[in-house]
Design a protein that fits this description.
This protein is of the alpha+beta class. The chain is built from 9 helices and 5 strands.
Amino acid sequence: MSEYQIVKHCAPTLAGLKSGNLIRISFKDKKDLNAQIRAINCKINSKGIYFITLSISSSNAWIYIFRPHLLQKILNNADAMRILEDLGYDLTSLGGLLRSLKARLEGYDMKDNFPHEIGFFLGYPTEDVISFFENKGKNYLLCGPWKVYHDVCSAECIFEKHRKCTKIYCQRYESGTSLEKLAVRSSISC
Protein backbone atom coordinates (compact mmCIF):
# COMPACT_ATOMS: atom_id res chain seq x y z
CA MET A 1 0.00 0.00 0.00
CA SER A 2 1.64 3.19 -1.12
CA GLU A 3 1.33 6.47 0.72
CA TYR A 4 0.40 8.10 -2.59
CA GLN A 5 -2.56 5.72 -2.87
CA ILE A 6 -3.65 6.77 0.62
CA VAL A 7 -3.35 10.46 -0.25
CA LYS A 8 -5.16 10.03 -3.56
CA HIS A 9 -8.11 8.12 -2.11
CA CYS A 10 -8.32 9.57 1.40
CA ALA A 11 -7.36 13.26 1.14
CA PRO A 12 -10.71 14.57 2.49
CA THR A 13 -10.34 12.37 5.59
CA LEU A 14 -6.68 13.38 6.03
CA ALA A 15 -7.79 17.03 5.79
CA GLY A 16 -10.56 16.58 8.37
CA LEU A 17 -13.36 17.22 5.84
CA LYS A 18 -14.77 13.70 5.99
CA SER A 19 -15.25 11.05 8.67
CA GLY A 20 -13.79 8.19 6.67
CA ASN A 21 -12.76 6.55 3.44
CA LEU A 22 -12.68 2.94 2.33
CA ILE A 23 -9.99 1.72 -0.03
CA ARG A 24 -9.44 -1.68 -1.54
CA ILE A 25 -5.84 -2.66 -1.97
CA SER A 26 -3.99 -5.61 -3.39
CA PHE A 27 -1.16 -7.17 -1.44
CA LYS A 28 1.17 -10.14 -1.64
CA ASP A 29 2.02 -10.80 2.00
CA LYS A 30 -0.51 -10.46 4.84
CA LYS A 31 2.20 -9.94 7.48
CA ASP A 32 3.72 -7.16 5.38
CA LEU A 33 0.31 -5.52 4.95
CA ASN A 34 -0.32 -5.62 8.72
CA ALA A 35 3.14 -4.16 9.33
CA GLN A 36 2.42 -1.35 6.86
CA ILE A 37 -0.88 -0.54 8.58
CA ARG A 38 0.82 -0.49 12.00
CA ALA A 39 3.54 1.81 10.64
CA ILE A 40 1.01 4.22 9.13
CA ASN A 41 -1.01 4.22 12.35
CA CYS A 42 2.16 5.09 14.28
CA LYS A 43 2.67 8.06 11.95
CA ILE A 44 -0.84 9.51 12.03
CA ASN A 45 -2.83 8.28 15.04
CA SER A 46 -1.66 11.38 16.90
CA LYS A 47 -3.60 13.38 14.29
CA GLY A 48 -6.83 11.55 15.18
CA ILE A 49 -6.78 9.30 12.10
CA TYR A 50 -6.88 5.50 12.25
CA PHE A 51 -6.45 2.68 9.73
CA ILE A 52 -8.13 -0.67 10.25
CA THR A 53 -8.60 -3.70 8.04
CA LEU A 54 -12.29 -4.43 7.57
CA SER A 55 -11.99 -7.41 5.27
CA ILE A 56 -9.12 -9.43 3.90
CA SER A 57 -8.82 -12.20 1.35
CA SER A 58 -5.73 -13.96 0.02
CA SER A 59 -4.72 -10.96 -2.11
CA ASN A 60 -7.08 -8.02 -1.42
CA ALA A 61 -8.09 -6.04 1.62
CA TRP A 62 -10.65 -3.36 2.42
CA ILE A 63 -8.96 -0.73 4.59
CA TYR A 64 -11.04 1.84 6.48
CA ILE A 65 -9.36 5.15 7.23
CA PHE A 66 -11.36 7.20 9.70
CA ARG A 67 -11.54 9.94 12.30
CA PRO A 68 -13.34 8.53 15.37
CA HIS A 69 -14.59 11.90 16.63
CA LEU A 70 -16.26 12.67 13.29
CA LEU A 71 -17.61 9.13 12.99
CA GLN A 72 -19.08 9.34 16.49
CA LYS A 73 -21.03 12.49 15.56
CA ILE A 74 -22.57 10.75 12.57
CA LEU A 75 -23.37 7.60 14.51
CA ASN A 76 -25.07 9.62 17.25
CA ASN A 77 -27.77 10.38 14.69
CA ALA A 78 -30.97 8.66 15.82
CA ASP A 79 -32.07 7.72 12.29
CA ALA A 80 -28.70 6.15 11.47
CA MET A 81 -28.67 4.27 14.77
CA ARG A 82 -32.19 2.91 14.15
CA ILE A 83 -31.13 1.47 10.78
CA LEU A 84 -27.89 0.07 12.18
CA GLU A 85 -29.82 -1.53 15.04
CA ASP A 86 -32.29 -3.07 12.57
CA LEU A 87 -29.29 -4.52 10.69
CA GLY A 88 -27.98 -6.13 13.88
CA TYR A 89 -25.15 -3.74 14.71
CA ASP A 90 -23.67 -3.64 18.21
CA LEU A 91 -24.58 -0.11 19.32
CA THR A 92 -22.82 -0.25 22.69
CA SER A 93 -19.67 1.53 21.48
CA LEU A 94 -17.82 2.81 18.45
CA GLY A 95 -15.74 -0.38 18.61
CA GLY A 96 -18.91 -2.46 18.55
CA LEU A 97 -20.15 -0.59 15.50
CA LEU A 98 -16.83 -1.12 13.71
CA ARG A 99 -16.78 -4.83 14.60
CA SER A 100 -20.32 -5.13 13.23
CA LEU A 101 -19.34 -3.34 10.01
CA LYS A 102 -16.34 -5.63 9.68
CA ALA A 103 -18.57 -8.72 10.08
CA ARG A 104 -21.02 -7.37 7.48
CA LEU A 105 -18.23 -6.60 4.99
CA GLU A 106 -16.59 -9.99 5.55
CA GLY A 107 -19.96 -11.60 4.76
CA TYR A 108 -20.18 -9.71 1.46
CA ASP A 109 -20.12 -12.24 -1.38
CA MET A 110 -19.98 -9.92 -4.43
CA LYS A 111 -23.72 -10.36 -5.07
CA ASP A 112 -26.58 -8.29 -3.70
CA ASN A 113 -25.61 -8.11 -0.04
CA PHE A 114 -23.08 -5.27 0.01
CA PRO A 115 -23.46 -3.42 3.34
CA HIS A 116 -24.72 -0.11 1.94
CA GLU A 117 -25.03 1.27 5.45
CA ILE A 118 -21.30 1.87 5.07
CA GLY A 119 -22.44 5.27 3.77
CA PHE A 120 -22.96 6.31 7.40
CA PHE A 121 -19.33 5.40 8.15
CA LEU A 122 -18.09 7.30 5.09
CA GLY A 123 -19.82 10.51 6.12
CA TYR A 124 -22.56 10.53 3.51
CA PRO A 125 -25.68 12.49 4.52
CA THR A 126 -27.98 10.33 6.61
CA GLU A 127 -31.03 11.19 4.53
CA ASP A 128 -29.24 10.07 1.34
CA VAL A 129 -28.15 6.77 2.89
CA ILE A 130 -31.72 6.14 4.07
CA SER A 131 -33.16 7.09 0.68
CA PHE A 132 -30.65 4.79 -1.02
CA PHE A 133 -32.12 1.89 0.99
CA GLU A 134 -35.70 2.98 0.32
CA ASN A 135 -35.11 3.38 -3.43
CA LYS A 136 -32.81 0.35 -3.79
CA GLY A 137 -30.16 2.61 -5.32
CA LYS A 138 -32.50 4.03 -7.98
CA ASN A 139 -34.33 7.35 -8.49
CA TYR A 140 -31.41 9.50 -7.30
CA LEU A 141 -31.01 13.14 -8.34
CA LEU A 142 -27.22 13.17 -8.66
CA CYS A 143 -24.52 10.53 -8.68
CA GLY A 144 -21.01 11.30 -7.44
CA PRO A 145 -19.10 9.77 -4.54
CA TRP A 146 -22.57 8.83 -3.28
CA LYS A 147 -26.07 8.84 -4.75
CA VAL A 148 -27.82 12.06 -3.80
CA TYR A 149 -31.55 12.05 -3.12
CA HIS A 150 -32.01 15.35 -1.31
CA ASP A 151 -29.82 18.46 -1.22
CA VAL A 152 -28.18 18.43 -4.66
CA CYS A 153 -26.66 21.90 -4.30
CA SER A 154 -24.95 21.02 -1.02
CA ALA A 155 -23.75 17.68 -2.41
CA GLU A 156 -22.28 19.37 -5.49
CA CYS A 157 -20.38 21.77 -3.22
CA ILE A 158 -19.07 18.88 -1.11
CA PHE A 159 -18.05 16.90 -4.21
CA GLU A 160 -16.14 19.92 -5.53
CA LYS A 161 -14.50 20.59 -2.16
CA HIS A 162 -13.34 16.96 -1.98
CA ARG A 163 -12.03 17.07 -5.59
CA LYS A 164 -10.04 20.25 -4.86
CA CYS A 165 -8.71 18.81 -1.62
CA THR A 166 -7.58 15.63 -3.38
CA LYS A 167 -5.89 17.60 -6.15
CA ILE A 168 -4.04 19.84 -3.69
CA TYR A 169 -3.02 16.94 -1.44
CA CYS A 170 -1.73 14.89 -4.37
CA GLN A 171 0.26 17.88 -5.65
CA ARG A 172 1.74 18.50 -2.22
CA TYR A 173 2.62 14.85 -1.75
CA GLU A 174 4.26 14.71 -5.18
CA SER A 175 6.23 17.86 -4.22
CA GLY A 176 7.65 16.13 -1.17
CA THR A 177 5.22 16.82 1.68
CA SER A 178 5.01 13.72 3.87
CA LEU A 179 1.81 11.89 4.75
CA GLU A 180 2.29 12.92 8.39
CA LYS A 181 2.40 16.61 7.44
CA LEU A 182 -0.63 16.32 5.15
CA ALA A 183 -2.73 14.77 7.91
CA VAL A 184 -4.43 17.58 9.80
CA ARG A 185 -4.42 17.21 13.59
CA SER A 186 -7.81 16.60 15.06
CA SER A 187 -9.16 19.41 17.20
CA ILE A 188 -10.95 16.89 19.40
CA SER A 189 -9.00 14.23 21.24
CA CYS A 190 -10.10 10.65 20.78
